[in-house]
From TrEMBL:
Keywords: Membrane, Transmembrane, Transmembrane helix. It comes from the Bacteria. This is Membrane protein. InterPro entries: Anthrone_oxy (IPR013901). It holds the Pfam family Anthrone_oxy. The chain crosses the membrane at residues 6-31, 52-81, 87-109. It comes from Streptomyces achromogenes.
Length: 159
């Protein structure tokens, strides 16, 4: 079992990555399905509005704070190398940093930017919309699973 500051770090890691898993999951199973049911022009407009308003302080603190916390856990683990839970702490961090934060930067955000440049209702936007829905949601599933797995691994580090 891990001890000292690792307990606090693992609990905070589990909480923040678990919350992000919930956010990503809600998008995959609720929001994207609802947007897919709309006519393409309305779907594009709605998703662009969501993306434009997504950077709220709460979301930014939770999303970037989770990444920062995972980075701190990684550095502290490498520097102090605890007797127990080392692999779990590092795997939990890697899952979120690569599978959630990295996927967001490399896959979801570029698709959001491409969609934002399209004028809703144009043939180009209508043609791109089903591609966007499929690809964005697929990558969002990865973010969901990576965040949930990160939370689970951090919890396992506690036992």
């Amino acid at each position: 079992m891990i001890e000292g500051p690792y307990v606090v770090l693992a609990v905070l890691g589990a909480l923040t990555t678990g919350l992000m898993a919930g956010v990503f999951c809600a998008f995959s199973v609720l929001v994207m399905r609802g947007l897919a049911a709309l006519p393409p022009a309305q779907g594009v407009t709605a998703m662009n509005a969501i993306n434009a308003s997504a950077m709220t302080p709460v979301f930014v603190v939770l999303f970037l704070g989770s990444a920062a916390l995972c980075a701190v856990i990684t550095v502290v683990t490498f520097v102090l190398w605890p007797d127990h839970g080392t692999a779990r702490l590092l795997v939990g961090s890697a899952l979120y940093l690569c599978g959630a934060f990295g996927v967001t930067v490399m896959a979801n955000v570029p698709r959001n930017e491409t969609l934002m440049r399209k004028e809703p209702g144009t043939p180009e936007a209508v043609a791109y919309w089903p591609v966007y829905l499929r690809e964005w949601t697929r990558w969002n599933h990865v973010r969901t699973l990576a965040s949930a797995a990160s939370a689970a691994v951090y919890l396992l580090a506690l036992i």
